[in-house]
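ok so dumb question maybe but i'm new to this and my supervisor (M.) told me to 'just get the structure for FZ domain-containing protein' and walked off. so i did the thing. is this what she meant?? sequence i used:
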Amino acid sequence: MCVGEAPPALQNPVRARALQLRIPDEHLWVPVPESLKCEAFSTESCEHYGVGRGGGVCEPITIPMCQGLAYNQTVTPNLLGHTSQREAVVKMSFFNAMVQSMCSVDIRLFVCTVYAPQCSAGEVQRPCRSFCERAKRGCEGLMTSFGVSWPDELQCNAFPEDDCISVSNGDGRSFRPACPSPRDILFFLFHRKTASLRCCMPREFLLS
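this is what came out, is it supposed to look like this??
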């Protein structure tokens, strides 16, 4: 509505607000659309703490930290809503010291499954809550020494407990495929409802 067409009360925002609080005049109230009423939203399977489901078109991973994973396709927006891998790289810099120090054997894989999540047929695989907790727990001492806290948008209770990716260090002898290079360290990604995924990480990356 143009200012010239507005009722006198609405031409002064402060006065309009005061009148809204005092007089429930139907001309001063804008009804909430049915689609935006609170009752229309589900209380189940909700997204919070900034962790969404992501989704879009699969694309090759270009993020340096996430090279050499068991998967090479990701998607944007990612789980935190970053619309490009370039943007994700900037945000991931918070974790550089943690990944290089190997404060947790899970930290690199966890960070990548959030910032460069695996994409399969346009669908995103999310990390499990237990995966997040292990990564965070292993690096709490290092974060304390730097005077920083775990990012609010990655609070572990924002992640699912089922239909998600968990991690093992490959202790099981029954299946341990070799890495392409003997200098690589082998890890396994397990998706609870799909196949297991192998992940090899270069020792040079871990020890640098």
